[in-house]
Amino acid sequence: GKNVLKMSSGIQIKPKPAVQKSKTSSPSPESAIKPQPKPSDKLNPKTIDPFDAYSQRHSAFAAIYAKGGIPCRLVHGSVKHKLQWECLPETLPFDPLLLTLAEGLRETKHPYTFVSKEGFKELLTVEGASEKAIPLLPRLVPVLKAALAHSDDEVFGRGLDALVQLSAVVGPSLNDHLKHLLTNLSRRLMNKKCKEKITIALQKLEQYGGKATVAIIKSKIPTYCSVAS
Q1: Where are the stretches annotated Disordered (predicted)?
Q2: Whose CA is closest to 204, among 224, 190, 220?
Q3: 176 found inside a domain
Q4: Residue 89 belongs to domain spanning
């Protein structure tokens, strides 16, 4: 009987460590489950980081657009794309929207390229655009200058189109700032792909800016031939 008791006690003793093992092993799946959110927590900033790096490399436009800060969206058409504004463009403040759209001209990815280019153009067509745009020229010109200095020919082209559109709206008011922009045009004139487009743009700047514009252009681009001559 003692042997049986010993055996039974032995049996009782043996399961105890087994139970303890199971107890110690049972939290391990729980502990394995607990760390799972941690990698996902680490992944969250990683999904943001590349975007932040992109927006810093190019412009603030992508970040603002992602947050819904641009009150228009791209509508894909069968023939061509167009913008749909959330409200009437004439009701929108030019500061900071026009500046933000100008920043977006330096983007190289779709849809940012289209939205910034088309948004800038359409905003300048609203009633009272001249009065709204002229006070922004000291801040707007450096942004356009950055687009005109860009190594990408398409970015340069968008910057040039925007400059002509702005000139058409603000007229001679742009003359005080024109010298800052002409250096980049002068450099690009050596590029055969850009030469004709730049020449046409300069003629339009003269047309919108008046007689005083010719002297300003010639001071930076001596080879320029006036439309009037």
Answers
A1: 1-48
A2: 224
A3: yes
A4: 65-220
